């Protein structure tokens, strides 16, 4: 039996912790590499997160690759004050001249347990500081071979949007930094918040290489129906409850018949199918716990019995929950670090 604590995580709200994020602004920084992840964290704050952003540099003024000048940058802070360092990418034409990279400060931050996240050529910055030796990492597909030649101790991965390796997250080109930041928010605050952030930013959320399929929490969110979004939000927030169509229709301010039609038109699937897929994904998250058993997860999520969960799981994933769980445990390279590189 999984512990009550492990099962209650799906429904209980943990207290919000402040996360101190240093955005390292280097010469020739790419604007979108910086703005994309920062916007994700900014939007998350509007939904209850508490990311404190600090824009830092070795110099108080830096020109971006696109010509915009950043001024009044903070000096590099004491790493012990931080939870995350974000390293946006820089112009690839300047990768031969990385003298402005504060390598010693980055190494000190890593030694203090601070988590590191890079976008695009930001991986070159971390590698230059000697922090990616022996680690899997991602960068822009066009520069992957360059990264490997220049830093042969790194393990470049070319088929993922972003890669986790211990306290390091490295993302591929440009907009993949948004996907990486969304994954950070989901890890810290759960699928409902990240669904709201993605919807607010009008982006289509994608997963990393370990979980290639798009999350059901966001997969059917590319429509503009406010009523259907409200229903989806409720289903995601209440996976254990069996909502009746009349109840959901009242939530959407529609008749049951209108909701049925509008939901299928907006998402391509029925309300029942969406609810079932949400419950299966929550079940998958719970089964990541090595102590979790199929019977307990089925009871926790309101399935009729474990046989129903096994049947639906096999139909959806093509294998039994037990086989899936065993495969996940065998292929998981290393445990994920907690936010800030430290255990809460």
TrEMBL record:
It comes from the Bacteria. GO terms for molecular function: DNA-binding transcription factor activity; sequence-specific DNA binding. Residues 325-344 are annotated as: Disordered. The lineage of its organism: Bacteria, Pseudomonadati, Myxococcota, Myxococcia, Myxococcales. Residues 229-327 form the HTH araC/xylS-type domain. Gene3D superfamilies: 3.40.50.880, Homeodomain-like. Keywords: Transcription, Transcription regulation. This is Helix-turn-helix domain-containing protein. It holds the Pfam family HTH_18. InterPro entries: Class_I_gatase-like, DJ-1/PfpI, Homeodomain-like_sf, HTH_AraC, INH-QAR.
């Amino acid at each position: 039996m999984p512990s009550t604590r492990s099962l209650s995580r799906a429904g209980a709200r943990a207290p919000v912790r402040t996360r101190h994020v240093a955005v390292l602004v280097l010469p020739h920084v790419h604007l979108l590499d910086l703005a994309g992840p920062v916007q994700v964290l900014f939007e998350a704050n509007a939904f209850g997160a508490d990311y404190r952003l600090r824009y830092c540099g070795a110099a108080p003024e830096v020109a971006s690759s696109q010509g915009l000048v950043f001024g009044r940058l903070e000096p590099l802070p004491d790493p012990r004050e931080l939870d995350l360092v974000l390293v946006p990418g820089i112009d690839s034409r300047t990768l031969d001249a990385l003298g402005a990279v504060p390598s010693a400060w980055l190494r000190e931050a890593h030694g203090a347990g601070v988590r590191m996240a890079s976008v695009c050529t930001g991986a070159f910055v971390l590698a230059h500081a000697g922090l990616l030796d022996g680690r899997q990492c991602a960068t822009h597909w066009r520069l992957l071979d360059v990264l490997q030649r220049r830093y042969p101790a790194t393990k470049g991965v070319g088929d993922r949007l972003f890669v986790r390796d211990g306290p390091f997250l490295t993302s591929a080109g440009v907009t993949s930094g948004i996907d990486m930041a969304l994954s950070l928010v989901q890890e810290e605050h759960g699928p409902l918040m990240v669904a709201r952030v993605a919807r607010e930013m009008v982006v289509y959320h994608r997963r990393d290489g370990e979980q290639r399929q798009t999350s059901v929490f966001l997969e059917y969110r590319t429509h503009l129906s406010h009523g259907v979004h409200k229903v989806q939000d409720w289903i995601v927030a209440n996976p254990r409850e069996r909502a009746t169509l009349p109840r959901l229709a009242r939530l959407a301010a529609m008749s049951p018949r209108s909701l049925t039609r509008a939901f299928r038109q907006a998402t391509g699937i029925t309300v029942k199918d969406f609810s079932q897929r949400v419950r299966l994904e929550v079940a998958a998250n719970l089964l990541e716990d090595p102590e979790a058993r199929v019977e307990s997860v089925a009871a926790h999520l309101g399935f009729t019995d474990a046989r129903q969960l096994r049947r639906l799981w096999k139909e959806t994933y093509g294998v039994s929950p037990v086989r899936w769980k065993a495969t996940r445990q065998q292929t998981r390279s290393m445990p994920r670090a907690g936010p800030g590189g430290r255990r809460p």
